[in-house]
Amino acid sequence: MYTPSHFDETRPEPLQQLLHEHPLGLLITHGPQGLDANPVPFLYDAQPGGAGVLTAHVARANPVWKEAADAEVLVAFQGPQAYISPNWYPSKAENGKAVPTWNYVVVQARGKLVVRDDVAWLRRLVTRLTQRHEATQAVPWQVSDAPADYLEAMLRGIVGIEIPLTSLRGKWKMSQNHTAANREGVARGLRTQGAEASAVADWVEKAAAPR
């Protein structure tokens, strides 16, 4: 991933926060038919002294777990993103030197994919996934809500994957290469464009803050 130094993000805390807030990763593999990409919701676990571990499950019918077993894979996580109009830069009115661009946040995780074809392991995983994503519901659904025989059938239809990470790298392209006045103009413009663009405005303001 091409990453100029002013967009490079290596601090563990913001990288981990993005994985927590945007857990749907694009699992990119290279199999017999060439490159493949599968959207998969992941759980991320930090590890002292390491890049952490990603865990997930895929349908047993999906060949990716066979084709990518024990192979190096890439998982891309996309955060907020939005188009940036040059009209938002105060500097444009001064010299006209401005062009459109796109702001975005992305994290790339790399590691070797390990297959976990084990019902007990899968039950623990789906329980954790359920607890994580049902936490905001008024009455959270629980794995135990499903009939036991139905649940067993569902578990037999999936396969677990685990990716001990060798690297976790982020690119925060949020107008850091512009003046404070231009960044303020970008944030103001974004807040007129809807919810996701407003979220990008928050990131522009955070990225401009001293580390």
Give a brief rundown of this model.
This is FMN-binding negative transcriptional regulator. This protein is of the alpha+beta class.
List keywords for this structure.
single chain, 211 residues, alpha+beta, Pnp Oxidase, Chain A, nine-stranded antiparallel beta sheet, 34% strand
Describe this structure in words.
This protein has a single domain (5-81, 103-176), classed as Electron Transport, Fmn-binding Protein, Chain A (Pnp Oxidase, Chain A), CATH 2.30.110. It has 211 residues and is an alpha+beta fold. The mean pLDDT is 94. The longest helix has 16 residues, at 119-134. The protein is elongated, with a radius of gyration of 20 Å. The chain has helices spanning 12-21, 64-67, 90-95, 119-134, 148-156, 180-190, 195-208, and strands at 8-9, 24-31, 34-41, 43-45, 53-59, 72-84, 101-112, 114-116, 158-173. Helix content is 33%, strand content 34%. The protein contains seven helices and nine strands, in the order βαββββαβαββααβαα.
